[in-house]
Structures are given as structure tokens and as C-alpha cells.
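Section handout, structural biology tutorial.
Before the tutorial, make sure you can parse a SMILES string by hand: atoms, branches in parentheses, ring closures as digits. In the record below the ligand is adenosine-5'-triphosphate, and the chain has 257 residues. In the tutorial you will relate the predicted C-alpha cells back to the input. Do not try to memorize them.
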Amino acid sequence: MSAPLLELEKATIRFGGLTAVSELTLSVVDNELVGLIGPNGAGKTTAFNMITGVYQPTSGEIRFAGKNTRGIKPNRLAGFGIARTFQNIRLFSSMSVLDNIRVAARLHNGEGYFSALWRGKAWKNAEAETERNAIELLEIFDLAQHRDELAVSLPYGDQRRLEIVRALATRPKLLLLDEPAAGMNPSEKDDLMRLIRFVKERYNLSVLLVEHDMKVVMGICQRIAVLEYGIKIAEGTPKEIQCHPKVIEAYLGAAAV
Ligand SMILES: Nc1ncnc2c1ncn2[C@@H]1O[C@H](COP(=O)(O)OP(=O)(O)OP(=O)(O)O)[C@@H](O)[C@H]1O
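Predicted structure of the complex:
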């Protein structure tokens, strides 16, 4: 097995008296798709917020590509290759679909004010590359025909997929997906599963997926970690997780047996 791209070692975060994530040890290797599941309030989004630098762990360590991320700001971590989507859609609603992607890619490229003003050859090359990349992603996600429409005018499922496209436009190594199937209908969910698998291979991504839909999680994850009250209670393959007594008791319920 290759060295982990992402490693959490006893990562803990406390908010006042509440330990939202407690001594979480978890790793994701190159090109691996790992699920992070658990009941509401278990600490999944908080774990994402620690990985992306939004929160600093109270104790423990998080490493990305072997480097301790402590104290590194979210925008710099994004530059190192960590991208995420959010539980609640956060598109620029008054921008077109294509502009949403362009903005994300430009921020990632670190385009400065003067280079944008000057618009030299390097700027033009980077711009053309951004455009090609954005259009390829829109085609993969079947959104190319909507490229000039306002993001807000897209149906809900398309907006969710656009969020993933926007994250991918930053050319990440690690993609964190926070409930990407929320609110999707069954055929959109099937499509989403196919797309996540496809882009993982196409761009050689590692993916950490938070998702409540068990069909999606069990269908695409290679490995799954389960949180309850901030504590990892189980980790294993989808098959192992489905029949893990602690997981059934805490989360999946009798229906899963
Ligand atoms: N900034 C904060 N300040 C105080 N408490 C917080 C903060 N962020 C999260 N929490 C608390 O940490 C716990 C874990 O929340 P978190 O949102 O990570 O859960 P989750 O597993 O993502 O839940 P869900 O599935 O409902 O999204 C909750 O009790 C939450 O209220």
C-alpha cells in the first residue's frame, strides 16, 4: 500500500465542554475512496473543517502529503491540493455556470491583480487551459449545455453536481465531499455514483465522502470509517461495516441486518 496522502493521528477538537471529534485516526491513500459516516452530530463535518484548516485540532496531528497542516490557512491548503464541497450548496448564484468554475480555478492558480490587468502571454495560456479544463469537466458532468445559464437557475441536482465540478476545477489531489447526494432523486444518485467513480480514475483523485445515503456509501466506498459522538467506533470494507454490531446499534439500525 502507498504512503497515505491524508493522515489524521488522534485528531481531537473541543468546543467548550463538547468534544466534537475525539482522537480520530484515519488515513486515505492515493486514489482511494473512503467513506466517513455516522449519525447527525457525530463530527463528520467538523472532521472536514479540521482537514481543510477551517478549525485547528485541539490536539493530535493532521498530515497532507506527509506535511503537518497545523496553522496552514484554508486557501493555502486548497493550493496544496485539498478541495471540498459543502453540505449546503455554496455556489455564486448570480454568476453563470462557467464563471463559477473560472473563479474557482483562478483563485486556485493564484492569479494576481496585476497579471489579470496586464493579460500577458502567460495569463492567456493559463486562461485557455482553465477554459479547456472547465469545459471538459462540464461535459463529464453533463452540464455543458448550461454553461451560460445562471447557477441559481439550475435544478437542485445539477447545482449539487456543479459544486463538485467547481471543486475539481482547482485540480485537487484530495476531494472532500460533504453529503453530495442530499436531496437528489434515485436516478440522480445513481448518476452521481458513476461520476464520482469516473473522476476518481480520470484525475487520479483520493476522495473522502461524508454521506447519509447508505446505497451510495456502500456502493462506491472502498473503506468506511464510522463516527459516533466524535469517536471512531468502526472501520472496514462496506461488507464489514454492514454487519458490524456497534455500527448496526449506533447507526444503521435493524433494517441493515
Ligand atoms: N463551531 C462550533 N462550535 C460549537 N459546536 C460545534 C461547532 N461546530 C460543530 N459543533 C458541534 O460538534 C458536533 C459535531 O457536529 P458536526 O456538524 O461535525 O456533525 P455531523 O456529523 O457533520 O452531523 P450532520 O450529519 O448532521 O451533518 C455537534 O454537536 C455540533 O453542534
